[in-house]
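Q: Convert this sequence to structure tokens.
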Amino acid sequence: MIIESLVATSLITSLTFGQSTLNHSLSMQALQEDPYPYEFFQKMQVSGKDRTTEFKDSFVRLSEDEKFEDFKDTHVLLIAGLLSDLSILVKNNPLAKWIGLKNKFQDQIEFLTKNQITYDLVNIESEAAPKVNGAIICKSIEESKKQIIIFSHSKGSTDTLTCFVSRPDLLPKVRGWISSHGAFWGTPAAEIFLQNRWLKWPSNHALRWLGGGIESVESLSVYDAIEFNLRNEEMLKNLPNKIPLVSFASYKPDVPGKWDTYFEPYFRDWLEEGGLQNDGLVPWKSQIFPGSHYVLIEGMDHFWGLDENNDLQKSGLGGKLMAGLFIMLREEIRDFQKAH
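A:
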């Protein structure tokens, strides 16, 4: 654990301060050399039903006394995203505290505990390849004695989808899926990361020490995501008809003079300058599973559930947001049951 903590600290340092070795011209060079990932999202038409207005209306009316008794017979699996383990490995590290890392899924766990809903934080290596984590997720679904609800974040949604593709026979056991800030079509940030030796080389070694590898980042490449989706096109096209599915997406525009998200002057600003509204890491269009019902929030960044400095966390609304998403999932489940 001591070695892992040191490696994790090294990785945080390279990701946070190593960006100073980069500059604006590098991002523009990457865009000029390979504009396709940007053009792909610029031309993309989102498919699905926008439920943002209904979500905001119910969020405003949400009472502290809202009951979630209908979820007590379910088992919630929390699937974390890439690098989420850093919050645990460097929990008592001054650098981590300065950056603002906290225990992963803190808001989600507080909500589930308050409402006495059974949950497990699935024991994956967040830095491992999707096929490795997908198998672990499938095993967790299979071994549970209850109907499953999945709450996944970021790359955790890619890992979850990999499970569903490999084991579609498990879908009848899944009562619902909330995907938060997924990257179903990848992100150009992965291309920037993979093409830059100042980030790729040290991070690859650190990721391997943490139990994963650069394959985890490669799975977030736009090219890898497109290839995966085309290879499994028929299955993915039918998935919203197989399980109730809610996509939670956001974007955070630049505020001049304020550093308000990790990697702000790099990934977030690079993507924005390329014409892509994003949450600091992933274009919002990539966060929506094709054909799903979705919520799109402005002003929220990618790191909900990990970042103590997040405006949402400071506002104390993280738990209320979880309640709102579960109310929306409840409605999706009812509509799904009526249709089937």
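The radius of gyration is 19 Å.
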